[in-house]
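Q: Second attempt. The first request was missing the SMILES, so the protein and zinc ion are both included now.
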Amino acid sequence: MARRRFVALAVAALVGLGGAVWWSVTPARRSIPLVRGQAPPASLKAHCDEAVGAPRVERVTDRVFLAIGYDLASTVLVRTDVGNVIVDVGMSPARAAPVREALLHASPGPIAAIIYTHSHIDHVGGASVWADPGVPIWATASFTDHFLKQYGAFRRAESRRGAAQFGEHVSEDSLPCSAIGRRPDLAAATTTGARFPSHTFSGAQDLEIGGVRLHLREAHGETHDQLFVHLPDEGVLLAGDNFYRSFPNLYTLRGTSPRPIDAWIASLDAMRRLAPEHLVPSHTAPISGRDQVREALTRYRDGIQWVRDRVIQLANAGRSVDHIAADVGLPPALAGAPELAERYGQVDWSARAIYDERLGWFDERPERLYPHAPAERARRFVDAMGGGEAVRARAREAVAARDPRWAVELYSLLRDAAPEGMSPGTPLAGELAAALDALASEVGNTNGRAYLLETGQRLRHGEPPLSAPTLDPAFLDVLPVSHFFTIMATRLDPELAADVHESARFEFTDTGERLTVTIRHGIAEVVAGEPLPGTPEPLAIVTTTTATWRRLATDLRSPLAAAASGELAIAGDALAFRRFTGRFRRGL
Ligand SMILES: [Zn+2]
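A: Got both inputs this time. The predicted holo structure:
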């Protein structure tokens, strides 16, 4: 009898363990309809045709082939005497499979090596299609750290913003491309085929494969783990994401830590020094001709430096960040350059990011220090403007007068003043959505356009479930077990944790690690080693291995099965431990 009671308590304790401590992955479902029939500006359509185009293999030289138009990022094949070297492998196995077929049709042979230009999922998610057994995979030494950041505490925000930036619920007739490539298939990309590199380097690495020399150079820019590949015998430079046919994404709407502006310029200068005949970026069409390549690279780095230097000048002059964003622009000598057209990155967003990186959010405007709370502030504005109905009437007039920019401002004020009046599906939400659609009709930047259209659709139909890459079990054991606890701490529900002061201990038999999680003052503290003074006695002690814990935390292993097989033991008050884990929010 006693044993049955123990089992029942253990089951109760374990039920809350899975997704609560890290995340469980919800399969992608398209639960809201697609935005359709929003005709893109003609110039955007032309850009999509010219810079991206239909899926095809282009022969750059006798040895270099480019598969472009199949996915957001391109894949390059370098033919050597012992097989093919593949640079970047696409976003998902589903998208990579036809690329492999097309490239190997152009250059049949075994895969000799894979090179990742960086760790963004659109360049590595299709690796399983290319990584035949024993094929070496090259990347910079920062690759793994950078890759795993994609599975950090801000993942939910990043996924929601990423889905908006790429217009997950926007049809192809309304958004024909993603400015730097084919629209990504975010649903397919939830199944990742990414593989970790087997060979890494810092600085530079020279390879000779089947009679072809490949010079790999670390080149920070769009990411801190970026490299480019120079093929001196071919006169070809594979630029990764430090160059493509759009103003660079110095800031990305999906959210990222600041991109290293000075390093990006230095990387472009290192590329200029090599004076290649062919510039083959990982996104958008290649450029051939030594003069054309030199001029394009020079204008690109000059555009970045222009924005950086104008931000510095205007900040030193005491201008607010809003004024700076509005005033930076590009000089006449660069404004018409095709590779600086604001199709993917945008000058004003970049200016804000550069300002924020160096000076932070405060821009010398004293009114920003002690404003009223947003709802109160918005209500007072609405009152000063004659009340909600008057503001709404002005917003409708703005739409009728083809001034959607102003309409969006006015509707947003109404949203902030009374958010409940703007909940998805309400007439007011529909009016803001229509104003966002109207604004999008003027926007030729695909990230901005997608964000407006996707947001409008969420206003009409509510938030769709998030689709985000699943964590491949192969990556799990690379994550330090403390990473799971760091994220667990951020999942504490302050309401369920109010007035709680309790702790639980976790002991890992394989590494000897001991972690104590203490709930106190509405936060969860994670302490490695000995608990700090004042920590209450643990209400339970969980004993397991790091491998088991990683799988429990990601719902790959059932706690009940782990307990039954002896991989997991819980000593102490099982019901109290159940309550303890129940204070953390489940979900992504
Ligand atoms: Zn990319």
